[in-house]
Amino acid sequence: MSFVEEHAKYDWDDVRLSIYSKTERDVQRALSKKKLDLEDFKALISPAAEPYLEQLAQRSFALTRKRFGHTMSMYIPLYLSNLCANACTYCGFSMENRIKRKTLSEDEINAECNVIKSMGFDNILLVTGEHENKVGMKYFKQVLPAIKKHFSYLAMEVQPLDQNEYAELKHSGLDAVMVYQETYNRRTYAEHHLRGNKMDFDYRLDTPDRLAKAGIDKIGIGSLIGLEEWRTDCFFVAAHLQYLENRYWKSRYSISFPRLRPCEGALQPKSVMTDKQLVQLICSYRLFNNEVELSLSTRESPTFRDHVYPLGITSISAASKTQPGGYANEEEELEQFAISDERSAQLVAESVKQVGMEPVWKDWHPSYSG
Asked: What is the mean pLDDT of residues 33-51?
């Protein structure tokens, strides 16, 4: 049993119709409950809930402070390679885009780590394109131990791997893995993944199951907002989260909210989400699940990030570069997508403090587990 079987129980069009059929009474009922189910979540992300944004925000703020206190986890991505063997319509690293390709050497990685450490970070997300031959397990096993020496918490966002491979990387220092389905609509997924291993919808959908079975501490899920109708896609993220927590309680979970950003060969979004709708979604996830970590990247503007911090977000990136070697030797031509919040890590940390929260640079340390 995996989420592949659970996913097959749903019909996309039925879910979409159900969301858009929710009424004001459904929204009020959801807001009155302490423990929400998936039908309540549909109501909160529906158009009928848009007039209740203030109530959503107030309750989300209170629940987040109760569970996470007045803290904000800080992390930074380190792009190791932009090599990719997939053709995806929305990504700057797609094999069909004519950009310079680069994979960092151990010396270059060490230089990147030194710059990142000087900013204050102790929580890092390693990112690559998906190229199993040149940036696969052999490369990961080579570089992870060296990177782990610099940071107490190490996450990855790379191609999906087998369960035994995740278990092996865990012994090399891996703590967390982010794996986004992009879209939970099987037909739309096929339209955007044209070549390469990423065409396998089921293998990607099954990845969080393999991660949990391998004992990975934290698993990040989400959809790429804009590939499909956002409300329906984000419902499936909530259903996926509920499935995972019910079966794999030893792992922690996080959700991210990436909206399509400009990149090489840029794709126009099929579904446009406004800033108010993103706030609605963030708050809805918090009301649905008080424990899940909610992460917001530098894809979003400084103004938006500063205003939404207190409403449910628990983790943010800062000073991000989306190209290999971007910290020690910036080359914008290699970047995956254009970021929006270009402030330094210290300026972002100051903005967190200005809304009454405390930046936390360390996610977790194994010694805390006793």
From this structure: 97
**73 DSSP β-pair partners:** 315, 360
Residue 300 predicted with pLDDT over 50? yes
Mean pLDDT value of segment 145-152 = 96
- Encoding tokens for residue 363? 């996610």
Q: Where are the alpha helices (DSSP H) in the chain?
A: 3-8, 12-20, 24-32, 38-45, 53-68, 106-119, 137-148, 163-171, 186-192, 201-205, 207-213, 230-247, 275-288, 302-308, 345-354
Asked whether residue 11 carries a pLDDT value surpassing 80, the answer given is yes
**Mean pLDDT, rounded, of the chain:** 92
Of 298, 289, 305, the residue nearest 36 (C-alpha): 289
Alpha carbon distances (Å) from 135 to 57, 138, 140, 159, 305: 42, 8, 7, 9, 33
Residue with more model confidence, 234 or 98 = 234
Q: What pLDDT is stored for residue 96 in this prediction?
A: 78
CA 155 to chain centre: 11
298 within 8 A of 341, measured Cβ to Cβ: yes
| Rounded Cα gap, residues 255 and 166, in angstroms | 20
Tell if the pTM clears 0.90, that is, is over it.
yes
Q: How confident is the model at residue 272 (pLDDT cuts 50, 70, 90)?
A: confident
Q: Which long-range contacts (CB under 8 A, 24 or more apart) does 258-262 make?
A: 258/180, 258/222, 258/224, 258/225, 258/297, 258/299, 259/225, 259/226, 259/299, 259/300, 260/90, 260/224, 260/225, 260/226, 260/227, 261/299, 261/337, 261/338, 261/339, 261/340, 262/337, 262/338
- Per DSSP bridges, beta strands 87-88 and 193-195 are antiparallel
Q: How many angstroms separate the CA atoms of 112 and 259, rounded?
A: 27
